[in-house]
TrEMBL record:
It holds the Pfam family Biotin_lipoyl. This is Acetyl-CoA carboxylase biotin carboxyl carrier protein subunit. Keywords: Biotin. Residues 79-161 form the Lipoyl-binding domain. SUPFAM superfamilies: Single hybrid motif. It comes from Flavobacterium difficile. The lineage of its organism: Bacteria, Pseudomonadati, Bacteroidota, Flavobacteriia, Flavobacteriales.
Length: 161
């Protein structure tokens, strides 16, 4: 049985394929990440510029034009049809102390824009320095602690807007 795929190009064009229909492409690798493709007697030069294999997202240059590609396989399509968003979850709006400790350093300020995995503060606990990083991109709404403050487990440290 043929497996379905949904390919989104630049977030606004969607193409539905099956693995059988993709076998009609004549693609030859000419060097790493560079391909010569022949489709219905029309030649294309393609280069994979960036690839995120885990999220199935790619940036591909075809005949000089760059396209952002997202590929959904059979499982992704089933999950989508069930109304379940992959990776969707609760948005984290506050950072709480994971353990009791002492605030050694605060790396951000109120109103600052931060990106995911950016250091927010350093918490010393059990003679170890623990860097707490941002779980998402966003803007710092408030900081409820100061350098040298002792904190308890679960105490609010930082809020996001």
């Amino acid at each position: 049985m043929s497996k379905p795929y949904k390919i989104s190009v630049n977030g606004n064009q969607v193409f539905n394929f099956t693995d059988n229909s993709l076998t009609t492409l004549d693609a030859v690798s000419v060097e790493e990440n560079h391909f010569h493709i022949l489709n219905e007697n029309t030649p294309f030069q393609a280069e994979i510029i960036a690839a995120d294999f885990n999220s199935k997202k790619y940036s591909v240059k075809v005949n000089g034009n760059t396209y952002d590609i997202a590929i959904a396989n059979e499982l992704d399509l089933l999950i989508e049809s069930m109304g379940i968003a992959v990776g969707a979850g609760k948005v984290v709006n506050e950072i709480k102390a994971p353990m009791p400790g002492l605030i050694l350093e605060i790396c951000v300020t109120v109103g600052q824009e931060v990106t995911e995995n950016e250091p927010l503060l350093i918490l010393e606990a059990m003679k170890m320095e623990n860097t707490l990083v941002s779980p998402r991109s966003g803007k710092i709404k408030s900081i409820t602690v100061a350098k040298s403050n002792a904190v308890e487990k679960g105490q609010l440290l930082i809020e996001f807007e």
